[in-house]
UniProtKB/TrEMBL annotation:
It comes from Streptomyces boluensis. SMART domains: CobW_C. It comes from the Bacteria. This is GTP-binding protein. GO terms for cellular component: cytoplasm. It catalyses: GTP + H2O = GDP + phosphate + H(+). Keywords: Chaperone, Hydrolase, Nucleotide-binding. Gene3D superfamilies: CobW-like, C-terminal domain (3.30.1220.10), P-loop containing nucleotide triphosphate hydrolases (3.40.50.300).
Length: 349
């Protein structure tokens, strides 16, 4: 029985920026993850190139367990309800914004949704590096979209010189209010940026992104790795709720995702807290410690242009070496503000 909430990612970007290319890439190299993709029409999704396991109405299931739905705006809610049923078993859902709704409308809808099985997974804006200046002239609203984005994929970097790319990263980053900017070619980003990957052992028999790195040889692999930084933090000393919240309040914008478990020790001995942060969005979710589980805080932080050592130091500072206010209920209040009251329904088969 799974109580996991499925992250729903909104994928936006102007005409021709590379959204469909990125989706095809994700679907093809899902690494054993079950991805649901919602588009306006099947159009350029390369369904034929991926083995199709079946089709029911406007939903196509692919041989690797991924699903692709073509829906219009009015059907979206109902489809999300269907796609997020635990029995479908998806790990992430990506909604392509174009044609369905303005990205901010979708984000608002997801944040306000009373579907207990979903959690907001971020707004990803794909930008055509070669056309950025032209796009800005023709569509000044790109500034608004970028300001809302949690992650910017600066695509088509093969079409600009390295110097220009550096300038573009800075310019786009400024519009995006410091949000993480990840360069890509043909939408090839590590899926880990969008959702929790399955542990390697569970990927057996599927082509994982690591295989893709290996297959492509050093150059492209190095390029992908340089696109973002990933840092893990583990502590067997419990974290102090207030200190952690101060850290989270001040987290740098370039820190795109934080995921993992937090041990608040004596402040809540019964529960561990799943932490899910994407862009500015933050959520804690208490769940009883599994019997026999080691009491550890384990976090993974993913970002672009962030100071890994500095983050590690700041997190170490959240450790509560000498608990003084344990038992004071109000110490947890700050954390509880970010707990979602909704409980997902039990899994049904
Ligand atoms: N050179 C280059 N071309 C790319 C890259 N990514 C995508 N393309 C090409 O750009 C074109 C548009 O890509 P799409 O993925 O269809 O873009 P889109 O954002 O889905 O476009 P719409 O659905 O029309 O909004 C296609 O011909 C892609 O092959 C890239 O990194 N470099």
């Amino acid at each position: 029985m799974s109580k996991r909430q499925i992250p729903v990612v909104v994928l936006a970007g102007f005409l021709g920026s590379g959204k469909t290319t990125l989706l095809n890439q994700l679907l093809r190299f899902s690494g054993g993850n079950r991805i649901g993709v919602v588009v306006n029409d099947f159009g350029a999704i390369e369904i034929d190139a991926m083995s199709v396991a079946g089709q029911v109405g406007s939903t196509v299931s692919l041989g690797n367990g991924c699903l692709c739905c073509a829906v219009d705006g009015s059907e979206l809610d109902a489809y999300l309800e269907k796609l997020t049923r635990p029995s479908v078993g998806l790990d992430v859902i990506v909604i392509e914004a174009s044609g369905l709704a303005e990205p901010q409308e979708l984000v608002r809808m997801l944040l306000g949704s009373d579907n207990p099985n979903i959690v907001y997974g971020g707004l990803v804006e794909v930008v055509d590096a070669a056309e950025f200046d032209t796009t800005r002239e023709r569509h000044p609203e790109i500034a608004r979209h970028l300001a809302l984005a949690d992650l910017v994929v600066l695509n088509k970097t093969d079409r600009v010189e390295p110097d220009e790319l550096r300038q573009l990263r800075a310019a786009v980053g400024a519009f995006a209010d410091g949000a993480a900017v990840v360069p890509s070619t043909y939408g090839r980003i590590d899926p880990e940026l969008l959702f929790d990957g399955k542990p390697k052992g569970e990927r057996f028999g599927q082509l994982s992104f690591d295989d893709l790195h290996d297959r492509d040889g050093g150059d492209e692999g190095a390029h992908l790795h340089a696109a973002y930084d990933s840092l893990s933090f583990t502590s067997d000393v419990a974290l102090h709720p207030r200190r952690l919240l101060d850290f989270l309040d001040e987290r740098p914008q370039g820190l795109y995702r934080i995921k993992g478990f937090v041990d608040f020790g004596a402040y809540d001995p019964r529960n561990r807290y799943t932490l899910h942060a994407v862009g500015r969005f933050l959520r804690f979710r208490p769940e009883p410690w599994p019997a026999g589980a080691e009491r550890l805080t384990q976090l993974v932080l993913i970002g672009s242009g962030v100071d890994g050592d500095g983050l590690h130091r700041a997190l170490s500072h959240c450790r509560d070496d000498e608990p003084q206010d344990a038992g004071l209920e109000e110490v947890m209040w700050g954390v509880l503000r970010y707990v979602d009251e909704r409980e997902p329904e039990p899994a049904v088969e």
